[in-house]
Specification:
The complex is a heterodimer of chains A (114) and B (112). With 114 residues, chain A is mostly beta strands. Chain A is built from no helices and eleven strands. In chain A, 0% of the residues lie in helices and 50% in strands. The N and C termini of chain A lie far apart (36 Å). Chain B is mainly β. The relative contact order of chain B is 0.35. In chain B, the strands form two sheets. In chain B, strands 2, 4, 5, 9, 10 and 11 form a six-stranded mixed sheet that branches. In chain B, strands 1-3-8-7-6 form a five-stranded antiparallel sheet, with no helix packed on it. The chains are: A mainly beta (114), B mainly beta (112). At the A-B interface, strand 5, strand 9 and strand 10 of A face strand 4, strand 5, strand 9 and strand 10 of B.
Chain lengths: 114, 112
Amino acid sequence: AAGVIQSPRHLIKEKRETATLKCYPIPRHDTVYWYQQGPGQDPQFLISFYEKMQSDKGSIPDRFSAQQFSDYHSELNMSSLELGDSALYFCASSLGGTGYNEQFFGPGTRLTVL
Amino acid sequence: GENVEQHPSTLSVQEGDSAVIKCTYSDSASNYFPWYKQELGKRPQLIIDIRSNVGEKKDQRIAVTLNKTAKHFSLHITETQPEDSAVYFCAASPNTGNQFYFGTGTSLTVIP
């Protein structure tokens, strides 16, 4: 069965650079979530989209922005990168837009900021 | 917002023994409680979930119980095997919004 696809899988950036992470949800899933997971930490919710509209917002820094496109894929844009942004970034998708449904996680993008 | 606490943070058991991980939540509006297993460097994967209209759910060696009054839920793994070794996260989801609030994780080690 098709799973959530994230690209790139690994990304190395310098401080103050920008990065764009992409997420392709499971076909027919209409809701996308972004999580940030630091080493030894639990996943921290950043933001979610349902039917191309922002549906919930968590601890996403102002330097980050995201959107969901007409084909339901999503992009997380990160600017003025800081060392503390180094983490695993997971995208998850679900069907239905509520928190009542299983979220399927992608393999993650490991971002390293030097 | 919701606050999920998870205990213990680390747990070691002998192969074949049972493991229990407990979580508490604060928001009485939470109505969906998934459990995820995460191996090092890999994605969280759902192993079992429970909704607020159910008190217990079992899937082979894994069971979850929910006490809505006390606002706590637990994961039970019986007949543990070395491949059960991983970090386990509980989560709670209120019906307002759609984000998951994760616990801080339990690192389970099953000793052969």
